[in-house]
Amino acid sequence: MVKKAYMIIDLDLCIDCNNCFLACKDEFVDNQWLPTSLAQPRHGQRWMNIMRKERGQFPLISVAYLPTPCMHCENADCMVAAENDAIYRRDDGIVIIDPVKAKGQKAIVDSCPYGVIWWNEEEQIPQKCTFCAHLLDDGWEAPRCVQACATGALVFKSVEEKEMEKIVADENLKVLNTDYNPDPHVYYKNLQRYTHCFIGGSLAVKKNGITDCLAGATITLYKGGEEVGVEISDAYGDFKADHLKPNSGSYLLEIKHPDHESKTQEVDLNTSINLGTIWI
Ligand code: SF4
Ligand code: SF4
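^ thats the input. predicted complex w/ iron/sulfur cluster below
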């Protein structure tokens, strides 16, 4: 069986250092690797694009980073849009834009549901991530971006399809949603960090005229009478119940601490929300 190329991206480990983006630039700017790519322009293209999303409100804010290369889809819209077989899939699943055949085909850029194809005005060609196919063909074990990632957020796999299916099930990997399933070769761990939202806040107490953070309180989250999560407030009294679906309606928070009276609060969840200071 043929081994296929896959990438796994863990959002919990991405710190937006942009090493992957720079490694990609280092590999492709001023370098052409025919037949798989012409040189990438110095400016204006991000073959490894780090998308950013800010969640919550000051001071409880979390920023999620979503590294987004070409997904090397099995059902690739770009291949359908390309004329003259200008885009093809290799046996290892890597989708390649032929820089010679694709010349002048600007319509290819808009065909990608993930928006990862860029237009090279000077060369008049569409361009994108190749999973560093030229290096893999030379015996490298991973693309440059994966090698450059110091946190281990990017992992490259060259495995048979069946083995990848098992990894996806065992590690609960997800793909980036589109209106349909293009069956991408890029999988995400902890994708909820980007797609979902949280309810957070800070617990505080006043005792004998002294204001203090309330650490160690148990915050239980209920939805429709069912318990859906439990959080413990940290040393600063902060808590965050994460991975909740956006626009998922009404929740009830029950806050308990052995030294204080319990308190409940209702929350209507649209997007990530910082409830601010909750006095106990
Ligand atoms: S190198 Fe790794 S940690 Fe840094 S931005 Fe890229 S994926 Fe994230
Ligand atoms: S992510 Fe876009 S460019 Fe990459 S294979 Fe899929 S449709 Fe084509």
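Residues 70-73, 76-78, 95, 112, 114, 116-117, 128, 182 surround iron/sulfur cluster (ligand 2) (CB under 6 Å).
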